[in-house]
Hints:
Blueprint: H1 8-20, H2 39-51, H3 62-89, H4 101-111, H5 115-148, H6 150-165, H7 172-179, H8 183-207, H9 211-219, H10 224-235, H11 237-261, H12 270-279, H13 283-314
Helix pairs in contact: 4-13, 5-6, 5-8, 5-11, 6-8, 7-8, 8-11, 11-12, 11-13, 12-13
Amino acid sequence: MPTEPTNTTATRTTATRAAVQGLDPGAFPPPADLKPVDLAAADRVSGMDALELGPKKEKGRIGLRIWNSTWPKLLAIAIVIAIWQITVLSEWKPIYVLPAPLDVFTVLKDLVTTADFWNGVRLTMTRAITGFFLAVLIGTIIGAAVSRFAPLRAAIGSLITGLQTMPSIMWFPLAILLFQLGESAIMFVVVLGAAPSVANGLISGIDYVPRTWLRVGQVMGMKGLAQYRHLILPASLPSFVSGLKQGWAFSWRSLMAGELLVIVPGTVSVGVRMQNARDLSDSALVISYIIVVLVIGILIDQLFNFADGKLRKRWGLTGS
Length: 320
């Protein structure tokens, strides 16, 4: 008859302990009632533990992943161009009012090869980045203060939401009266358009920090600024990034409206060039600048999506 297998692991462990203590290993036999290890069960348990690690990343499939994320966008672009071309062929508007896609792309190709075009893009992007960072600074300070002090939230919490829903173009008459036709007028409207979204994003993120985390932070001695720096602000980052993304959208729209309405002497930005094209009734050039503004907005949005995806992956909200 087959004999019952012995637990070699337990025997080895007992012998090792006896040797370390300078005793005779034979004086410590393994317990008689110790059952042998079920290797099949151990393999099943280790296999279940491996499920927690998620699937391994496949190497050499970068091209396929890029294609899977790119083709839907290319298909959407193709559909838009097809509808555009069909509308032109239907002669709904004269060709000089609504030019064909090929004519617009020809103008756009010639446009992007000029130095004046890139000078205008650089000026517009400088305004956008400057205004957005000012809005982030102001919105972060206001959001942290409102979430920290209950009386302040009761006083201006609804006001922040009201400012966020306010059309940015409504601020330009006041901005022109305050700052005349200058850069400050444009920055004023850009900041007012973006700061409320940034503040609301931070407030929402702080509100949803688990209370357990706050209690643990207090036990560890985190108070005041240290608690905000090391616990609350990192925990609110996913919601804060969403607020930044929305704030950028508002600031970009406000900037485009500002460049069309407030023409600063001596500066030729994207909005000014579009206005000049409209004055010349050059529809192809107007549409070309619309495409430029759209492409810039999409590229910045992709940067925010990348940052948001990294944060969600770090917090375990998406698959690996």
